[in-house]
Every structure is written in C-alpha cells, then in structure tokens.
Design goal:
Layout (H helix, E strand, L loop, with lengths): L6 E7 L3 H12 L6 E8 L5 H11 L3 E6 L4 H11 L4 E4 L5 E2 L3 H11 L3 E11 L5 E5 L5 H7 L12 E3 H4 L13 H12 L3 E13 L5 H4 L1 H12 L3 H8 L4 H4 L7 H12 L7 H26 L1
Parallel strand pairs: 1-2, 1-4, 2-3, 6-9
Antiparallel strand pairs: 4-8, 5-9, 6-7, 6-8
C-alpha cells in the first residue's frame, strides 16, 4: 500500500459539529489507507475544533489547522496548498463517503494518467442519514463537457483531482463565489481542454438540508454560474445569435432544437465542444424535460 500514491482528502469545516465525526470517520475507514485528511476549521463557533482534535489524537493522518473565518473559496485554496498528495479528493463535513470511494477513484486515475478529475454518482440522505434519493451522473468526456451548458455534471464533494494534470489551474476563483466549483470545471474542461470523467457508481452519501449553499444562496449561485459561462467566446456568440443562457441553463429554453442550431453556429467559432456530443446532450435535455412535464401534468390530474 505504501507504494501507492498518497491521496490528500481536503475538508473545509465551518460549524459542522453535528455530522463531522461521521464524515471524518468515513474517510479514515476507507479501504485505501495511504491518505491524509487535510482539514481547516474556518472559524467555527460550535464544537467542530474539539471533535477534530479528538479524532486527530487517534489517527495521525489528520492534518489540521484552525483560524479565523475567511470564507469557503479562500479555505479551499489553502487546503490545496497544504495537500501533499498526488491526487486530491474533495469532501464536505456533512457527507459520508462509501468505504471504497477513494480506492475506486485512485484506480481510475492510475488507469489513465491524462485525466484531470473524476467524480462519482451519489445518494441523497436527510438529516437523520436516511436515503431519500439517488443521482445518476453522466459519463463520457464529450457528453460531460457539453453538459456544462445545463449545469454542473459533477457533485463537488465527489471529485478527485490529479494535481499533476491540473497544474496551476487547480484553484478556485473568489469572483464566482457560490459557483466556484462550476467555474473551475468550465476552466479545466473548456479553456484548458483537459480530460474529465465520472464513475457512475454511487460512492457518496450527499446530505440535503436547508442550510446548503444551493438553498441559501440559490440566486447568487445562478448569477455566478451565468457569469462563469459568459467568459467563453462561444457563449457570447450564442447570445449574439439570440440565445438566452439563463433559459437554456437547466433546460428551460422554449425550443431546444433552435437552441442547438444556435449553439452549433456559435461553437464553430472556436470548437469548444464536439457537435455530436452537443446534439446528444440537447436531445437528452429535451427528452428529460418532456418526461418531467408529462409527469407533473399526470400528478395534477
């Protein structure tokens, strides 16, 4: 096991005491043992610091500092700087990792050392840890890159990076707070044109609660995502051709076939995406939206 690459699991913590011990233990109990768990307590006002220190006494693989509050983006970037691993995995302080999550992601990255990041599928759990749903994720590099038009195809706490491949691009941009992960995916996929992947296996329990970023800062998150998209010439051209990225995002646009033609025309300017992958993703968006619409009408009847 010592010959296998070191993995740094990075975990930002802010008032995470309620679920923190189970989250940390799910990493320490991984089948893959050659890892370090790098934690920053970002000025918590609860018992988080005491929980981490107690667990650190029992397992020296925990690397931990506590400081005043500086926000999530700054904390994530500092965690990356502290990480010694060849591979860097994200983990949130309220989620639970499958015991073989790290092992399977490491094996995938070792099989193709040109891949920049790999995510996984996941289950949703409630405050009591009960499974309340699942999320199937898309796979295939072209499809994932085209999916960026409709939202994030990766769940942030599932991803593992190959730090060597990402290089200096592995950092979060504070200008896109609340959508800093989505902006990073766009930058790695569209600007740097790096390879990305998803394991369809569900290897994380993703906790849903009212204080999550996507709930508390929903509007700010969407606006930051739109700004992240508009950095790219293809999106600027698409909107010049009459497209509306706000309606396209999450498949809300009126006629997705027309949007496809606009996007193909805009994409021809710099070939950010493959036309085939773009067409497949538009078709999936159309079918999924139609099915949901029919389902909603049926439930109302």
């Amino acid at each position: 096991m010592r010959d296998l690459p070191l993995v740094s699991v990075i975990m930002p913590v802010y008032n995470g005491g309620k679920f923190l011990a189970s989250s940390i233990n799910s990493i320490l109990n991984q089948s893959y043992k050659n890892l370090e768990l790098v934690i920053i307590d970002d000025g918590s006002q609860d018992c988080s610091k005491e929980i981490i220190k107690a667990l650190q006494q029992a397992d020296k693989r925990i690397k931990f500092i506590s400081r005043h509050n500086m926000g999530l983006v700054c904390t994530l970037n500092q965690l990356i700087q502290m990480a010694d691993g060849r591979f860097i995995a994200r983990m949130d302080a309220d989620d639970i990792a499958h015991p073989e999550r790290i092992q399977k992601q490491v094996q995938y990255l070792l099989n193709d050392l040109s891949i920049a990041l790999v995510g996984t599928g996941y289950h949703y759990i409630d405050l009591n840890g009960r499974k309340i749903g699942s999320r199937k994720v898309m796979s295939g590099e072209g499809l994932l890159k085209a999916s960026m038009l409709f939202g994030s195809p990766f769940a942030h706490p599932t991803v593992m990076f190959n730090a060597d491949v990402c290089g200096k691009s592995l950092n979060y941009n504070a200008e896109f707070e609340h959508a800093e992960d989505y902006e990073l995916w766009l930058r790695l996929c569209w600007r740097e044109k790096l390879k990305v992947a998803n394991l369809t296996e569900k290897l994380l329990m993703y906790r849903v609660h009212s204080s999550s970023v996507s709930t508390v800062y929903a509007d700010e998150q969407l606006n930051a995502a739109y700004r992240a998209l508009r950095q790219f010439p293809m999106i600027k051209q698409y909107e010049l051709f009459g497209g509306d990225i706000k309606r396209l995002f999450n498949s809300q646009s009126g006629n997705l076939i027309i949007e496809y033609l606009r996007l193909v025309r805009a994409n021809a300017m710099d070939n950010t995406l493959s036309a085939k992958s773009l067409g497949i993703r538009i078709l999936i968006a159309f079918i999924t939206r139609t099915r949901l619409s029919v389902s909603k009408r049926f439930r109302k009847s």
